[in-house]
Every structure is written in C-alpha cells, then in structure tokens.
Design a protein that fits this description.
This protein is an alpha/beta fold and 192 residues long. Helices cover 34% and strands 19% of the residues. The radius of gyration is 17 Å and the shape is globular.
Length: 192
C-alpha cells in the first residue's frame, strides 16, 4: 500500500506536520486475534508515525472470577506491544451491564477509580498526554474528563440497543454530547 506523509510548505521549506498522540479505547484485547476496526485504526496511526496508546477495558472484580485471559492481560499491562503502548488498569466498579451500573456516576467511577490511574499509565508511555482520545466503548465519556485537553472521538461500531436494551441509549447520549467527533462504521448507523 502507498503511504504519503503529510507536509506543510512554509516560505519555501517543507516541514512534516506534527503527528497526533492517539489513545484508542475498546474492550477487544490488543493481543487477541480479533481484527476490530479500532485496532486497525490504531495500527494505521502507529504506522504513520503517531504515538499510539491502546486502552483495553479495565479489569474488574467480575473479570477476575470469569476470565483467566483478562487477568493475564492485566498482569502484562502496561507494556509496549508491536509499537503500541497497551494499558489494562484495575477498577473496583464492574464493567458488566448490571442493574445500577449504567448510571452516569458508575460509568465515571469505572474510569476515575482505576489503579493505577489511567492518566499515570498513559504518562508512563513516554508519549505525553494524548491529543486525541478515540473510544469505541459505550459509557466512556469519563475519558474526556481524564484528558480534558484532548479531542474526544466516539466510534459507533454497533447498534447496541439490539442486544443491550433500550437503556443503553442514555449512556450513548452522554458519550455523544461529550464528543468532538462521532464516527460510524456504516451508513445504517448514521441515522441512529
């Protein structure tokens, strides 16, 4: 594939445009074989020279009980993997869709109460604070609060009410209201 580097011409000289520091967030583990669109975007930005951080869903008490692989991912985190800084913090608030855990306060707490804090894990990357936070996880508007200087992009990858119920729409509304940009993966989602 052909890749072009963006350049800016200033008074006869050519200088590369600064590449954004990106933080991508999606539940799909970075090391999994699933090639989700968010991981593909992260790889494309990495390959174009951007500093890329990938935030997996935080490990919560239910993950510890249900998923050995999630615990293994947490133990390896944070770490550089294929040129990407991969983070999986620990949170006391379950990330599962359980009654009472879709409130705005619970959603904020999932991210704000992480240990180590997400902001500290990101700083350890050596990239500095992200310029763009790109999330494909409903309920992640709290990342906007953690990185207030960054642009916040929400990637809509599915019609969640179809399998998570109508109450997810309020969660999505909060995300969309916090977003600078909303991206959808298909034309059918633009009307939604």
């Amino acid at each position: 594939s052909r890749r072009r580097r963006l350049t800016l011409r200033v008074e006869g000289t050519v200088a590369p445009l600064p590449t954004p520091r990106m933080l991508f967030h999606r539940p799909t583990p970075w090391r999994s074989e699933v090639r989700c669109s968010t991981k593909i975007f992260a790889e494309l930005f990495r390959d174009s020279g951007s500093a890329v951080t990938y935030l997996e869903d935080p490990l919560d008490p239910l993950n510890v009980i249900r998923s050995r692989s999630a615990v293994d991912d947490w133990r390896r985190s944070p770490a550089r993997c294929s040129g990407v800084w991969v983070m999986k913090p620990l949170t006391p608030v379950p990330v599962r869709d359980l009654p009472g855990l879709r409130s705005r306060a619970a959603l904020r707490a999932r991210y704000r109460w992480c240990r180590p804090p997400i902001t500290q894990m990101a700083e350890r990357s050596g990239h500095g604070k992200p310029d763009v936070v790109w999330s494909a996880r409903p309920g992640s508007a709290a990342l906007r609060e953690l990185f207030p200087e960054a642009r916040f992009a929400v990637q809509v990858v599915d019609y969640y009410p179809a399998f998570r119920g109508e109450e997810i729409k309020e969660v999505e509304r909060v995300d969309y209201a916090a977003a600078d940009h909303v991206f959808v993966i298909g034309h059918a989602m633009t009307d939604y």
